[in-house]
User: Fold this.
Amino acid sequence: MSEQAGKSASDGAEETAQTVAEAMIGKCGFSQLLGMRIIDTGPDFAKVEMTLGERHLNGFAIAHGGAIFALADTAFAHACNSENIVTVAQQCQVNFLKPGKAGETLTATAQARTRSGRTGLYDVTVATNDGIVIAEFRGMSRTLSDPVIPPAA
Assistant:
């Protein structure tokens, strides 16, 4: 394959990932409710951020575990759907390492570790803008068969 053909295929994969991510977050009321924003996306990769406000805090005035999980899960979803084939979570685990605090912007960075057949394994790191890791998430995905964005009729 020529260098130009490889670059063109890579550019197409990047564009597909971005188009799918925009469509997914545009339809996800929960992500919008929590104030999530896509920062970057590509094949098997996504970066999503969220600024912690009062609505994200638990009774101890630190980030609610569900809010952190939702951020990590959203980045995971964007990474594993980047090829425009509906892919869902089949198992996830999160480890909370440090508390998130109001006013902090958290970034969840998801990356594929391995894919085999219809199963994928993805790692997601949730960190503050200062680079302090507050959670690690691992998700196992299951690829279905429909496209995320159907072809134009």
